[in-house]
């Protein structure tokens, strides 16, 4: 997805701006957030803006096992053990001069944490079977979907390692707190689906958009993509996607009874945002619905909303709604 980090959400934009400013330094960055919020994409953005010439190497920490940790991370020299017929670079060696991304770093085992801390302290590794150490230099970006401080308190994560990997912390907000980005994300997903699967883009009905804006999206952008793919297939020969294509009836019924104004508008039910924010969000959603109903026709939208063109244009500018998108 090209637009996953293009956002109108102030919280996300703040995180992006901060890490972009730090990208030219070798500050270690920890990106935290729920699964599917785009943490790895932000890590790659850091790498791409850093100017380093090396590779962007992603390590799935959940797949590292103690018995193979050193071979996977540090590499292997020919003859180190039966089957080692040639020198093999480890993931850290591949990241030399580039960026090492430790994906879901909370899954590192105790042995893995200790070995990684030693590398970060000494900037050297010794491949399995090697007689000498190799100097390594890389930018470190880590991601996590759990609280590392909680894991430290439970003695499941080393505090000294924590302080080495999080000189700066960036937080990715969940999709349910990025309602202003849903329209652009869905359109980008549809374009990706068209390119990947040769499936023509279908128009979402107003009810489908309402369901999208009302849903929790606990799986975040990954879940959104899955829903759009499935709904496109379910729609079959129709040129439009309905709410029923996206969600089963029990889910739609549950959403209708569960959500109040704050949740539908994308605000946290435990806090009260400024009234102006609520009013502007209502205006945004109202104009968006008008433009969808009018299929982008300004005159028709004005008739439906019983408003003049100047009022429509003025309100759209106020709530940052791009009328050209419809």
Task: Give a quick precis of the structure.
This protein is α/β, with parallel strands linked by helices.
Question: What are its keywords?
Answer:
single chain; 326 residues; alpha/beta; Rossmann fold; Helicase, Ruva Protein, domain 3; 2 domains; two-stranded antiparallel ribbon; 16 helices; 48% helix
The percent range for strand residues is 5-15%
- Mean pLDDT level: 88
> Number of helical runs?
16
The CATH architecture of the largest domain: 3-Layer(aba) Sandwich
- Number of strand elements: 11
Q: Order of SSEs, N→C?
A: HEHEHEEHEHEEEHHEHEHHEHHHHHH
The name CATH uses for the topology of the largest domain is Rossmann fold
Tell me roughly what share of residues is in helical segments: 40-55%
The rounded distance between the terminal residues' Cα atoms is: 20 Å
The assembly state of the depicted protein chains is single chain
Strand order of the largest sheet: 2-5-8-1-9
Shape: elongated
Biggest beta-sheet profile: 5 strands, parallel
Radius of gyration: 24 Å
